[in-house]
Amino acid sequence: MRIAVIGGGPAGLYFAILMKRDRPEARVTVVERNRADDTCGFGVVFSDQTLEAFEKADPPSYRAITEAFAYWDDIEIHAKGAVHRIGGNGFCGCSRRTLLLALQERARQLGVELQFRRDATPEDFPEADLIVAADGINSAVRTRFADRFVPAVDLRPNRFAWMGSTRPFDAFTFFFRERPEGIFIAHCYQYEADASTWVMETDPETFARAGLDRMDERESARFLEGVFAEELRGHRLLTNRSHWRQFPMIRCERWVKDNVVLLGDAKASAHFSIGSGTKLAMEDAIALHGAFMAGGDVATCLARFEAGRREEVERTQHAADVSLVWFEHVKRFWHMHPTRFAFGVMTRSKAITWDNLSLRAPAFVEETQRVFAEEARAAGLSADPARPPLFQPFQLRGMALANRVVVSPMCMYSAKDGVPGDWHLVHYGARAVGGAGLIFTEMTDISPEARITPGCAGLWNDEQEAAWRRIVEFVHAHGEARICLQLGHAGRKGSTRLMWEGIDQPLESGNWPIVSASPIPYFPHSQVPREMTRAEMDAVKEDFVQAARRAIRCGFDMLELHCAHGYLLASFLSPLTNRRTDEYGGPVENRLRYPLEVFDALRAAWPEDRPMSVRISATDWADGGISDEDTLAIARAFAAHGCDLIDVSTGQTVADSAPVYGRMFQVPWSDMIRNEAGVATMCVGNITSADQANTILATGRADLVALARPHLTNPSFTLQAAAQYGVAEVACPPQYLWGKDALMRNAAREREEMRELRLKARPKIHAAALPAVPKAAAE
């Protein structure tokens, strides 16, 4: 087999090593445009888990790497005059030059042909069976065959530069330094004796105010020596092609063209803030080697590689992307207590959460829990520092919540003529006795024409009112849960089938007329809505008010106005569904006008001591839709009109939207609204565990956490979560107390067993021959 590798970085060299070792008869050639010892940057970082993979893949190169690395277990965060040191992480730093030379030596020993200072293209290897394009983040091969690989490059706004220093470290260290120009960040780690990497980062506004766009390498280094004078402790900053850049987020639709495959940064980039670029590249090499060892021709092996590797690459990229976005918005979190700020740094990528941080750094999590409780007490709440954030109380106007777990609004599509029946009593009643602090009803419609489907619940007549009163009375009689009525109007998404019969598809018969901000159907084959007239706006507003008055008589504790998911009021807010040319269309302040009219009418009718919230779609997941600036304007406007909480959802505005799903995927918009608009928020969207909820609350990304699917299958989600964290003071009806007692006893034992299992499952610590300097020396 003849293999040509274009690019002599870690990905290309490592693949060449593995293939030549296991197929010694193969001719493997690596071509690199630079000299053998020529490299930009300073050090690279690997975790214990990554080192374990290297050890399994090729012990000789693993030993060569670990003989030259600096090892540390801690992360240290310096921000706002405080220092937090968090253990249990397990990383090593290694000189990039040393890494390359070690891999080159291993490759030579195996008989790999190395050629330096030579540019190459795939056409230079007409006889090659396999061509590996490992030519880096600016891959010429990827660019040349872009029509096949279909790359997407997102150039992020923050500026960064790789620099070095002789200052020693005994921990991976983040420095955050506030100056008149803005906030500067240094990501620092030692990679060998008397050598450390300093990745400097700042936002574009700070970059411009500091004049860094007009400085050369030397001038930039001298300026940053002033910024980080205290942190450098007399050491100088070193440069090595330390140009300011913007990070390119790179994804490719395909990785293979004929016998050419992209590898490492050429196919996918991962931001330096989680230290994954070189890790991703070398793990690519392991995966590609594994695909060939599994057998088959080149095409089969390349298809196997792409199919088997893509999910892991995309998972790592997602974590890296979330991390880089956190650093882009660091100003958003700067007002926080230093401990909660540090907790946000640690959990920014979603890879680390409350529970696994409790395992590796229990004292730090206890401190975070204490600070959270102290801040809740300062807000007038009876918080308990022994409880995690999810089980701290919360208050909106006169409504007190025992905890921050919310049963998310979920349409049941099971009402008859809008009347909630026994199904609804059991559904809401079961979750009320399950311990949640707040329960939301499904979207409840204000008139027959406002329904999404024939099975939707309503509140426009006496029979419906009586049925809802029965549910509310049960909730109040059998637990501490409060209950919120969500009122809405389907607009152009009305007159459709039950969800399980075809979501958003028009009814085959029995349709009713629908209205919207503009006459735009949801699907091309959907019913075309009528553009609302002023008279219809007044009539619908009155229907909302009448429903709210019925809700007062039912005894609901809270009222939510549904302005999301493409329904009537959302159709006014989004430019994709609002094409009006009158005072209700155009700029966001005009698009807000009618939803605010409805909200004002409801707020005037709703009791002053009872809170109101608004559900919004913070993004449409479609080009030309609601922008972040629009979303902030919408949140601020509702808050100014008396809204107590923004229920932050996204999308479902247009049929061709392209949401990017993932764990807690809508939380970034809750975070943005809470910390930039200064409005209390409730987050929702693929939040599945109490662990995730605690992480969200501790980082200040929401005030309440709504969970939908977990509550569908587990009405006692909150009670079980309380047992998981040892919180005994959670509401439970007397009929279930024996079960609760057993749950609490068993959970204590299970917690300890799980802790032991997790400790055993941790990657082994890879002791270095040349460990990082002792703490005293670093100080």
Would you write up a description of this structure?
The structure is a single chain. Helices cover 40% and strands 20% of the residues. It is α/β, with parallel strands linked by helices. Strands 5, 6, 10, 11, 12, 13, 14 and 15 form an eight-stranded mixed β-sheet that branches. α10 packs antiparallel against α11 (298-328), α17 packs across α19 and α23 (628-640) packs across α24 (667-677). It is globular, with a radius of gyration of 29 Å.
Indicate the mean pLDDT.
93
Q: Report low-confidence residues grouped into runs of 5 or more.
A: 768-779
Instruction: Report the C-alpha radius of gyration, rounded.
Output: 29 Å
Q: Which class of secondary structure composition applies to the elements? A: alpha/beta
Q: State the share of residues found in helices, binned by percent.
A: 40-55%
Please name the defining characteristics of this protein:
29 strands, alpha/beta, 29 helices, disordered C terminus, about 775 residues
Question: How would you summarize what this structure contains?
Answer:
The protein has 779 residues and is α/β, with parallel strands linked by helices. The chain has 29 helices and 29 strands.
Helix and strand topology:
Blueprint: E1 2-6, H1 10-22, E2 27-32, E3 43-47, H2 48-57, H3 59-66, E4 70-72, E5 75-79, E6 82-86, E7 91-95, H4 96-110, E8 113-116, E9 130-133, H5 140-144, H6 146-149, E10 151-165, E11 172-179, E12 182-192, E13 195-202, H7 204-209, H8 217-227, H9 229-232, E14 237-239, E15 245-252, E16 256-257, E17 260-262, H10 277-293, H11 298-328, H12 330-333, H13 338-347, H14 354-360, H15 362-378, E18 394-396, E19 399-401, E20 405-407, H16 422-432, E21 438-445, H17 462-477, E22 482-488, H18 499-502, E23 515-516, E24 530-531, H19 534-554, E25 558-563, H20 568-573, H21 588-591, H22 593-605, E26 612-617, H23 628-640, E27 645-649, H24 667-677, E28 681-683, H25 690-698, E29 704-707, H26 709-713, H27 717-724, H28 737-761, H29 775-778
Helix pairs in contact: 1-4, 1-10, 2-3, 2-10, 3-4, 10-11, 14-15, 16-17, 17-19, 19-22, 23-24, 27-28
